[in-house]
Amino acid sequence: MDRFDRIYALHKILSSRRTPISRETLQEKLECSRATVQRAIDDLRTYLGAPVQYDREYNGYRLDDNAGALFELPGLWFNPSELHALLAAHRLLTPTQPSLLEDELIPLRQRIEHLLAHRKAGNRELLERVRILQMAPRPVDMDVFRKVATATVERARFKVLYHGRARDAITERWLSPQRLVHYRANWYLDAWCHLRRALRSFSLDRLHIVAVEGTAKEIDEKRLDRHFASAYGIFAGEPKHTAVLRFTSAAARWVADEQWHPQQESKVLEDGAVELRIPYSDPRELIMDILKYGADVEVLRPAKLRREVVKRLLSALAVYKSV
């Protein structure tokens, strides 16, 4: 019996009795030690607010006569980030193709299912009633992923052929891997590129491993954070500009609760609109996120970003002129 089963069993015993029950009897019914019974009582009382009282006259525990009848044990729900993490892990542990580690992963997947079931009062439908959606994932060759992940952990340098989408060109590079990144349903590698002599981010689906040889160049963690974590989205580099965006009052209902960047600043204007200030370096991903709001957003500054968004909108409009 695990911790959650024991808490529910204890509550069931206490709520079904009209008289106090001794700790020794609870030990027998719960099949556990004196210390474990005490922990279960403390959990039920402290974390779940159950009105458990100790009756000295009868040397036993009971639910308070006044509050006990009104108390109901709640489902032990996760917070949103915990639930997402476990469901995402379960999804990753449920392979869509045979895996060399399948036998080793099955017990871990079953443990997650067990934990999910008990944290919601024993109903296993959670896995069927909550969906984790991944938009536009790009498949990564399992052999490439395995080699990159192994080299990253073992701090090994490797040679790749990288097919960049922007220039549609293939280049040969030596990379010193630093971090694997899962972002917007896709996998990336933050690495030191020996060809460019700089930190770069690479999409794993565009890599072909040629050789693994030598020790990876180590980059200080603070430097990695400054380069990769301070800019907007997946594009790296320390922020050089601040975008000032004005969202209509209609869009503000959503934007006001969104985090586009950890260092963003926002304020509600008199007409109900929202002004959002976002630091960025490379504007490409920011522009994509701006365009999805259509006429509900206006780029106020900087002028160069505003001109680029206008250019994209005019290009889109040209496609529909014949309609």
What's the rounded overall pLDDT mean?
83
Order of helices and strands: HHHEEHHHHEEEEEHEHEEHEH
Rg, alpha carbons: 28 Å
Largest sheet: 5 strands, antiparallel
| Widest sheet, order of strands | 6-5-4-3-7
Q: What is the share of helical residues?
A: 25-40%
Q: Which of globular, elongated, flat, extended, rod-shaped describes the shape? A: extended
Give an overview of the whole structure.
This protein has 323 residues and is of the alpha+beta class. 38% of the residues lie in helices and 24% in strands. It contains eleven helices and eleven strands. The strands form three sheets. It has a five-stranded antiparallel β-sheet with strand order 6-5-4-3-7, sandwiched between helices. A four-stranded antiparallel β-sheet has the order 9-10-8-11. It has a two-stranded antiparallel ribbon with strand order 1-2. A hairpin with a 4-residue loop joins strand 5 (186-193) and strand 6. Helix 1 (3-15) crosses helix 3. The longest helix is centred in the middle third of the chain and has 17 residues, at 102-118. The model has no long low-confidence stretch (mean pLDDT 83).
